[in-house]
């Protein structure tokens, strides 16, 4: 090969890459596959997954075995963005099905092919609103996941946007999480009306989307855009990522939508096929005038969610939602008997806040952890945010409550 | 093929959704479990589904089909795809190298996959150690002083870099620095990112050797320039020959240097971006570090910075306190947080494993990537135009303009019939009928020879039987698709309302 190129050695090819790195690179010696697996096994075992009674943005739902098997197919795993549609119909059709599922669940007209995660999806929706309305401040309803708030604040600072304290005539959008961070569910029609009266868009953020099997679609109570996190649909908790951001909008916002969009069309013989469409919005064509800089998304996660929803169907998804709801309410009852006070003023889905007696909150959580339960997010002042899904077995719910009861009674 | 919405309902064969539950458990008043009955305390309320009517969903029209239907549907769908596992995928700028399968197994280990991000610090020591060591190894490879592993992709890392630039100059009371210099060969993400943070873009043309034109650069480099964003090697696959001079000029002007590291696959162990004068570099772990592209993602775009910028990185950072790892949220100047929790951790696991398996032999990756690219360029130069005739790095750009207008597109479609994925076409924008070819180090000489043979054959076909090429592909499930009507009459989802209305009739 070198002879064909017309050089003597590989060094002749790398000469131009300057300044040359002369030292010895400070990495360990190469590992064989056997050594690597053994090293990684022991590293992974330094982590201690427990039984989770915590959500707060990551939900531990059951993943059907068939999904795991389909996700290993190299045809899905090892392709890239479907720039050549004739040889990417699998990825493209899955994307079209994904967009359809998201629209069905949210009650919206158009969804894109995915964004990085729920928090970046929310941030993109805010940038979209400000660009559409030509306004530069936003309003956030109380109860947004604090991690999402942090990300949104960071994006706003980058884009010179302000977070307002009230809904006035110069805000671009009103944002509400539903169910909110504390698990509360609410029909937000009144807030949508308030937003629209101020000339703003209404954005609903859904971080636990299995709730949509029981709760009204946001499109039916006035949302102009619905964003959120699809991790609940067949994606492991993965220490926080990769997850699945989604965004869906009403028709009038189509031209402002960021990211890849798949559309149906035909070939010259009239066969149905799918392509990436409206690419003129995107960075590789529009450059500094693009709707967003997003390129790589999380297509594989979108395929996982699509297959998950297909495996579950409406029957299965309703079961998941009812079980999550039911188990959470069962646990709340048991914790009330154990001596904790419920703090949710509204109906909740599968997360709820409990107040422990003064000074006992941290002790309760550490006793739970010692017994193998990651129980509740510490909200401070002896308040904890607790979550159940269909995975939390009734026996565990019972022992969870009795550990809490013991801790309080010892005190 | 059918859409999942087009199968007949078949609830009786449903398997995956049959989690141990029946409706009696849900609605009965005995807590759904006999065991819990014994545990029931006095005064304890029974749980029921009590959702107010104005919140309750009226319809959920997802299809109910059997597990077998679903498995067949998606298996058949996958067969309409092309991937690295199926053949040569020389998509320039995307580094479509083999994705070692062991890394998939590793990322699926229980301790990684099933770890909740809000777990107690004592329960996440393995993940923290992995992140800390990956950061250390990436520092060794780039010469940078600190890394953030948070950004989900290269474009998000760029956004982070530009946000840091903004915060840095605000802090220094230099708000007048509102411009970013970007060469005309840059990825579209660079100018798009600049705009997201309200920076103005100055575009600098390339010179006859494919470098950024240094005299035009010097003229543009005024006191209002905050940042220079360079891709190195650039998107022509050429190393910026004057990178040290450019960095020097920028720094003397108080301007910072950002490296779009999409092309790091050319530099591992050979040259370090920090030594080239860059203050920032992002690395696409899904390119250089072999995490699978997944049909468009997930990726991971880690950002490295020099010491003086470390305090601006997002929180949390991982710290090592004599062998015990922890998250540190105390960074005073931090610009904030780029995403929920800590980054695409599953991708970090794969990249970490990849670095470990190559270790201090990692230079061989880049050497072979450069060898393969130069060999293939040599094979193609007689039949195609090479606009910048230099030794290339890990990729190269050729032009097919001599074969006619739209010939790059025709060649791309015809390559599908020969069993290859086409190169990136019509990019970079500065080359007419551009074909951007990145073979990567994982391909054999035989594959490169076969690809070159197909390219030459197609060039000949274009001269002798142009209609054969213009009508291609002939062997795929669909022919060329009508993108114009896809945009003009958008059909972007399954029209379930139409079917719901029909079934009600």
Description:
Chain A has 411 residues and is an alpha/beta fold. Helix content of chain A is 39%, strand content 16%. The mean pLDDT of chain A is 96. Chain B has two domains: 104-360, Aspartate Aminotransferase, domain 2, CATH 3.40.640.10; 363-487, Aspartate Aminotransferase, domain 1 (Alpha-Beta Complex), CATH 3.90.1150.10. In chain B, strands 1-7-6-5-4-2-3 form a seven-stranded mixed sheet, with helices on both faces. In chain B, strands 10-12-11 form a three-stranded antiparallel sheet, covered by helices on one side. In chain B, strands 8-9 form a two-stranded antiparallel ribbon. Chains A and B meet through helix 1, helix 2, helix 3, helix 4 and helix 5 of A and helix 2, helix 3, helix 4, helix 5 and helix 6 of B.
The coarse overall form of chain A would be globular
CATH-derived topology of the largest domain in chain B: Aspartate Aminotransferase, domain 2
Distance between the terminal alpha carbons of chain A, to the nearest Å? Answer: 77 Å
* Annotated CATH topology of the largest domain in chain A: Aspartate Aminotransferase, domain 2
Strand neighbour order, sheet with most strands of chain A:
2-8-7-6-5-3-4
Topology order of chain B in helix (H) and strand (E) letters? HHHHHHEHEHEHEHEEEEEHHEHEEHHHH
Number of strands of chain B: 12
CATH architecture of the largest domain in chain A: 3-Layer(aba) Sandwich
Q: In total, how many domains does the architecture of chain B comprise?
A: 2
Q: Could you tell me the strand content of chain A as a percent range?
A: 15-25%
Our count of helices of chain A gives 13
